[in-house]
Specification:
Elements: E1 6-10, H1 15-27, E2 33-37, H2 52-57, E3 60-63, E4 68-70, H3 72-81, H4 97-109, H5 111-117, E5 126-127, E6 130-131
Parallel strand pairs: 1-2
Antiparallel strand pairs: 1-3, 3-4, 5-6
Length: 141
């Protein structure tokens, strides 16, 4: 199997995050993305050179060439790779980036509350016949 262009490290305990990763996975028909649930037992962030506190603050991703992307840069890269860059076009506008990054960080910090407010519910451990801890919509890698 080839190396993905981008590996996303997401919070599998966050209902909104799970839904977004499932959506990206659905759109990723070319297999450019890989997903790692940092809430899985045994997950170790050490190889990325970051700690769990940093991973919990903002979405992190790792490019095929080893570059760590954080926050809105991860979102921009992921959506662009699945052909949906237009959805996150404002993230490309230099004048908007500081404000959008701050809004994203506020959202990420309060993602459980926003998940609830937006109507996202925790995903059961067994869904559609797939039973395991962590991320039932995404394959274990």
């Amino acid at each position: 199997m080839s190396t993905p262009a981008l590996r996303l490290y997401f919070d599998g305990q966050c209902p909104f995050c799970m839904a977004e990763m499932a959506r990206l996975r659905l759109w990723d028909t070319a297999g450019k993305l890989a997903f790692t649930d940092m809430a899985e037992d045994g997950f170790d962030p050490t190889p990325m050179g970051v700690d769990m506190a940093a991973l919990n603050r903002e979405l992190h991703s790792l490019t095929a060439d080893g570059q760590v992307l954080i926050g809105i840069d991860s979102l921009l890269a992921a959506y662009t790779l699945v052909g949906r860059g237009w959805v996150v076009f404002p993230l490309r506008v230099k004048a908007f980036r500081p404000v959008l990054a701050a809004l994203y960080r506020a959202f990420a910090r309060n993602r459980y509350q926003f998940s609830k407010m937006l109507g996202y519910r925790p995903v059961p451990a067994c869904e559609a016949g797939i039973c395991r801890t962590g991320s039932p919509f995404l394959p274990r890698e």
